[in-house]
Amino acid sequence: MRQHLVMGNWKLNGTKASVEALIKGLTPAAAAHPSVQVAVCPPVIFLGLVEQLTAGSKIAYGAQNADVHESGAFTGENAPSMLKAFGCTYSLVGHSERRTLHAETDDVVAAKYEAIQKGGLIPVLCIGETLAQFEAGTTNSVVETQLKAVIDRCGIASFENAVVAYEPVWAIGTGKTATPEIAQAVHAHIRQYLAGFDAAVAAKVQILYGGSVTGATAADLFGQPDIDGGLVGGASLKVDDFSQIIAGAAK
Ligand code: PEP
């Protein structure tokens, strides 16, 4: 039985004060729903603060990005082992903003996924199609290609220790949530595709939906059989909205 996981992606947002208010505000909501795993991905500069603020709570946390290298002349980067040392459980990898704004290819994403696992973290592999690809009806083949790059490099068994996040690019930050039916169909396809390599791994892996999830849409989305929770951007920055989303995952 897969647990629901709700993960906030704070992106490049927050101040020391807002981070404190957000974690303090979310702690009771997370505690009120023991069946739901809750995690946040703050900007890396706030990891030490989040480590302190989440002590004793069930809120896990992760990074939004990690480098493939462990050390060296890579200005501005953070190694997975450094993130682990600050208590991270997860790291996002392959978010569409990194694929687009930082030119991260499927090969780069696969290398980062491998480095994140080697560093002792759980990669949250973000995949999804653009609006043009959605309109062209190529969603399934797009997500297959994105998954295959990781399977080729790391093997299907690596998904025993990974999370997949299906995030249609046209739904991220646009207010256009995929309908539960559309999202469920893609999630089922992702699981079926993984099952072609290993049915037991596919049955166990958590597949999150991301793209303009709100308190109003969470319960219907997470009620679908192959949607195991959500990766949430904008709404994860507001205590009330994210608390409602956590509650939606408990239903
Ligand atoms: C995201 O960036 O992962 C995301 C899902 O953002 P939003 O919820 O704001 O669409």
UniProtKB/TrEMBL annotation:
Subunit relationships: Homodimer.
- Major site of localization recorded for this protein: cytoplasm
HAMAP family in alphabetical order: TIM_B
Can you name one GO molecular function term for this protein?
triose-phosphate isomerase activity
The alphabetical list of record keywords is: Cytoplasm, Gluconeogenesis, Glycolysis, Isomerase
Q: What is its EC number?
A: 5.3.1.1
Role played:
Involved in the gluconeogenesis. Catalyzes stereospecifically the conversion of dihydroxyacetone phosphate (DHAP) to D-glyceraldehyde-3-phosphate (G3P).
State the top-level EC class: isomerase
Determine if Ion transport is one of this entry's keywords. Answer: no
State the encoding gene. tpiA-1
The organism named in the record is Aeromonas hydrophila subsp. hydrophila (strain ATCC 7966 / DSM 30187 / BCRC 13018 / CCUG 14551 / JCM 1027 / KCTC 2358 / NCIMB 9240 / NCTC 8049)
**Where does this protein act, in terms of pathway?**
Carbohydrate degradation; glycolysis; D-glyceraldehyde 3-phosphate from glycerone phosphate: step 1/1; Carbohydrate metabolism; erythritol degradation; Carbohydrate biosynthesis; gluconeogenesis
Q: Which reaction does it catalyse?
A: D-glyceraldehyde 3-phosphate = dihydroxyacetone phosphate
Give the GO cellular component terms, alphabetically.
Answer: cytosol
- Tell me where in or outside the cell this protein is found: Cytoplasm
What does the record list as GO biological process?
gluconeogenesis; glyceraldehyde-3-phosphate biosynthetic process; glycerol catabolic process; glycolytic process
| Name of the protein in question | Triosephosphate isomerase
Looking up Pfam families in the UniProt record yields: TIM
Member of which family? Belongs to the triosephosphate isomerase family.
Q: Where, by residue number, is the active site? A: H95 (electrophile), E167 (proton acceptor)
